[in-house]
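User: structure tokens for this one?
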Amino acid sequence: MKRKNIGKMTRRRDLLAGMAGSLVMAAMPLVSAQAQEGLGTSDNPTEIRIIANEAFANTWQTLLVPEFNKAFPNVRVVFDGVPYTELLAKMMLDSTSPDPEYDVLLVDDPWVPQLAEIGALMDLKGDKVAALTEEGYDWDDFNAAPLAAGEWNGVQYAVPVRSNMLLRFYNRTLYKEAGLPEPTPAQTWNEFFADAGKLVRDSSGDGKDDRWAIDTYFVRESLTPTIWQSILNANGGSLLDDAGAPAFANDTGVASLEIHKRLLDYAPPGALGHGFSESLQAFRQGLVANMFNWGSVYKSTAVDPKSTTLTVDEVGIQVLPVGSAQAGTHRGIWIAGISSKTKKLEASWAFLQWLTSKQGESVNASLVGSFPARKSTLNGEPAEPWLGPVYETLQQAYEVAAKGKMWRIRSPKSDAAQQILADEVARGLAGQVSAKEALDTAATKIEKALK
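Assistant:
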């Protein structure tokens, strides 16, 4: 009897063990499927929607998404392009909706504070995202200046995906024809203007000047003050003091704005109405020897014959001339963050991780011409030969920007402050008021706007 009971117990134990093993085996595919659900399956792909500047949204959709899908075939990425002037307002409206449409927001440099203050963005170093972050994703590998564009009040809300810096493009052919040596990153503003007079000339012999020394932003718009600010920072000045009050309405600020205005003496006729597009067109056509513009246009200006008359051998690139403190530049980073209300966190972060990884940066640079933010990418072997000197200049620009705090006002009210600067700098450049009066007025208005 005793032996019989033992046999029954043994059989029962074996049966239970078998059942448990079957349950475990049955559960294994279920667990695996659940783990993969956030990244979709071939039968049920996950879709994430991204709102971005229409200037590059379609290009990224066409060129970058297929590369991402090689690694993540079951994540469908859809870009919606919005005109720049409408982009921030639409982001803020969508972010405050109870059921937002977008999972990822592509944000311009000064907008992070505004979006962070309304709770639109997720902390990318917080526990939820950290649990999904790959071990090899090295935060310390990012250059400080571009990474800081996505930070506000000590929280990392976004990562750099289209790093950009204000740089100096110069035409080697026009310098040679004028009998001048190529400029160097050590060239001062005084040396720049000494050359400028020789770069304005009549190349056809008809008695009319048809080549000029410089073209850049002079028109009344929000990016025009970045030229003046680059000069201000290079002269050791700053927009705000440590207490957050305007600090530019002084001798340094006035002298810097007068340098910006002096550029008009060596620019093409009508340059007071020139901005991004006009200066770019003039430089690509070989009409001006120098252009201060955003570095991201290098590929379409020096490499792509569909958009330029110039070649890589003709186009040099470096930081802006040296002021009393250092060289000049200005930060203009496009960063990407994840909506705090997304239901597709894993897929959203998978896309941003890939895009800002070493591999993603290389793909982005070679296919689209976007500039990387990682030190390892800039110091490594470039994907295309033409990127070598560009990367060298970009690394220098990042270091210069970090040292001189060369970026727009960081505040939830940065757009309002930038528009004030655009209005007053334009009045100063046009000679409607003196440089001192323009900056005094701007300082008074900005101080009120930031309160």
